[in-house]
Design a protein that fits this description.
Chain lengths: 245, 242
């Protein structure tokens, strides 16, 4: 355990020092939140019963998950494979699985830090208070993360080269970030686009988080089941198809 | 304790139609420095991969410390250190952090501060690995190969791309390790390096063994005057053809 923590500490440090992670994971959701709140914070977001401030807090609390799942995890793993880091780790009494676990945990911690910064800003500077149950919110947030991370790990397993990984992550990351309602409020989308947002995996999580944050739990169970199913299926395929080299 | 440390018996490996290693056999004794020589693409790295259990041979068997590395990975790599060709490190990682992380892989790692000092890298602890010179980076990869206090180390083209001074520095440290009884398996393209370090050599061409023996034997069997000429002779290179 002590050895694992040592390794984790190094990997976490690498994430904390990576400029992409800081910009996309920590600064971007914060900047979007401040902008949306200043422009339209007190306006009511259609149909949700939430104001734009409340609704965008929820949506942006998933941006860290999105960045970690669709950028940090696949990029670091595919790079480690193509640079021979995984092969080198294989030639040691320890398993390269440790490195994968360290990176996944480190990515999760980055997503949590991102949401924490956002929460402190929302609560302290914008007077945000959540109507719903905070414990349930955290649970759904964690489930959303688990499910998105499993998709990220699947990408890392299926993409053999850095090039194909870049293409796939861009194809997944940007639509997920922009069209699932994570950054641009889904409430201002036209009807067709909104329907698309609701079927995207991250969109499912966001919709559920919004419901919970508004103090309701209507329809949350089947959506939770969808996320669990995604997590199970993607994890199994990614473990089965993973290659060290 | 004497005896065989590495044993390769009738090993063959093909990738598609191309036979990369062809019925290759040799043994390496404990405390020996053994050099595997051959042209680019002769099958040196593939042979190492098979000994280390990274690739399974199509035929034959390779054992290290009496074990099949692919089946006893943990046990083998507690005692075997490696430096692989083309290994890079995580971007942004510092020398110190790389040592921490690789040290954490072993139950009882060596004191890396001591190793860094020995290899003249003590002043570079805080530098990122990507900013090191080629020589420094290769020396770091030797440090990381030694961090688990191994009995055997594999060094795959350790000094390729190094300047003369850096190469001599690496030699000096390898000679020290040899004196301490470490078994070293190395591949190289430099004949003066093989001559300076190796007790025994095996020369392969297109995956097949051409000759094996001590440096003196390899030279005298070729009828040439030095190792470079002997190597060229074994490779079938004839200067008069030009």
């Amino acid at each position: 355990m002590r050895r694992f923590l040592k390794m984790y500490k190094v990997e976490q440090k690498l994430f904390l020092m990576s400029p992409d992670v800081i910009i996309f994971n920590l600064l971007m959701p914060l900047a979007s939140f401040i902008l949306i709140s200043l422009i339209a914070g007190s306006k009511s977001a259609a149909q949700t019963g939430l104001t734009y401030l409340q609704s965008s807090y929820v949506a942006l609390s998933t941006v860290g998950i999105c960045c970690s799942a669709f950028m940090s995890i696949p990029i670091s793993l595919v790079e480690y494979r193509s640079q021979g880091v995984l092969k080198r780790m294989y030639c040691s009494p320890c398993s390269p699985t440790w490195l994968l676990a360290c990176d996944t945990i480190a990515s999760g911690v980055m997503a949590a830090i991102s949401t924490l910064i956002l929460t402190v800003t929302a609560v302290v500077f914008f007077g945000y208070r959540m109507k719903g149950n905070i414990g349930l919110y955290i649970l759904v947030w964690l489930l959303t993360m688990l499910s998105m991370f499993s998709i990220g790990l699947l990408i890392a397993s299926l993409c053999r080269t850095t090039k194909s990984m870049n293409v796939v992550t861009s194809l997944v990351y940007f639509p997920m970030l922009l069209l699932s309602g994570a950054t641009i409020p889904a409430e201002i989308f036209p009807k067709g686009l909104r329907m698309l947002a609701e079927v995207m995996p991250l969109g499912v999580g966001i919709k559920m988080l919004k419901t919970v944050s508004a103090g309701s739990s209507a329809g949350v169970l089947p959506e939770m089941a969808v996320l669990v199913a995604i997590a199970v299926v993607c994890s199994i395929i990614s473990v089965k198809t993973f290659k060290w080299e | 304790m004497k005896g065989n440390c590495i044993s390769v018996k009738n090993v063959s490996k093909s990738f598609g139609d191309r036979k990369v290693v062809d019925n290759l056999s040799f043994t390496v004794g404990r405390g020996e420095v053994f050099g595997l020589l051959g042209h680019n693409g002769a099958g040196k790295s593939t042979t190492i991969d098979m000994i280390l259990g990274l690739k399974a041979p199509d035929e034959g068997e390779a054992t290290i410390l009496g074990m099949d590395a692919s089946r006893n990975r943990k046990k083998v790599f507690e005692k075997v250190g490696v430096q692989l060709q083309h290994t890079q490190y995580q971007s942004g990682i510092t020398v110190e952090d790389a040592c921490e992380e690789y040290g954490a892989l072993y139950k009882e790692p060596a004191d890396y501060g001591e190793l860094l000092k020995q290899f003249g890298l003590a002043g570079l602890r805080k530098s990122t690995v990507s900013k090191l010179s080629g020589g420094e980076r290769q020396k770091l990869s030797v440090v990381l190969a030694l961090i688990g206090k191994p009995e055997v180390v594999f060094l795959d083209e350790l000094t390729t791309g190094l300047d003369v001074v850096a190469r001599r520095e690496v030699w000096r440290t390898l000679k020290n390790l040899k004196e301490r009884g470490l078994t070293i398996f190395l591949t190289t393209h430099y004949m003066e390096e093989a001559q300076a370090l190796c007790d025994r050599l095996c020369i392969i061409k297109s995956g097949e063994k051409i000759t094996e023996g001590t440096i003196e034997e390899v030279i005298s069997n070729s009828g040439q005057s030095n190792l470079e000429e002997a190597y060229l002779h074994y490779m079938g290179f004839d200067e008069t053809e030009f």
